[in-house]
Design goal:
It contains four helices and seven strands. With 123 residues, the chain is α+β, with helices and mostly antiparallel strands. It has one domain. A hairpin with a 2-residue loop joins strand 4 and strand 5. The chain is elongated, with a radius of gyration of 16 Å. The protein starts with a helix and ends with a helix.
């Protein structure tokens, strides 16, 4: 079974067990790689208008550069997300906008849940 097909079969509820809270509301897994010591998930933001805008007011203009985010290990292997956030242009003002998203701890490349966990064991 190919990798893309596997994610089509898997239920969103099942995927939510492995991904940070809220991630799958605005992002979709487009592919993944399984390596000897890590899983890498490639994730793109869905074309859903950010809060305060309608789909008629804005137009998707592709993605920002890919970011790598670290999360809890899965089955003893590192877990990384290669995330592409979408950018939109407001048609009226030509202003570039993006969704406010606070799943990453400021100043790190860690999910909030993973950073909190690591902070707790370092005390």
């Amino acid at each position: 079974m190919d990798k893309i097909h596997l994610f089509c079969i898997m239920d969103k509820e099942l995927l939510q067990i492995f991904f940070p809270s809220g991630l799958l509301e605005y992002f979709k897994v487009v592919s993944y790689k399984k390596r000897t010591n890590e899983y890498i998930f490639y994730i793109d933001e869905l074309n859903i208008a950010p809060e305060g805008y309608t789909s008629e007011e804005i137009e998707s203009k592709g993605f920002y550069n890919q970011e790598t985010i670290k999360d809890f290990p899965i089955r003893g292997k590192r877990c990384r997300y290669k995330l592409r956030r979408r950018k939109w242009i407001v048609k009226k003002s030509q202003k570039i906008i993006m969704r406010n998203w606070d799943i990453i701890t400021k100043g790190t490349r860690l999910t909030n849940e993973f950073a909190t966990f690591l902070k707790g064991i370092n005390r």
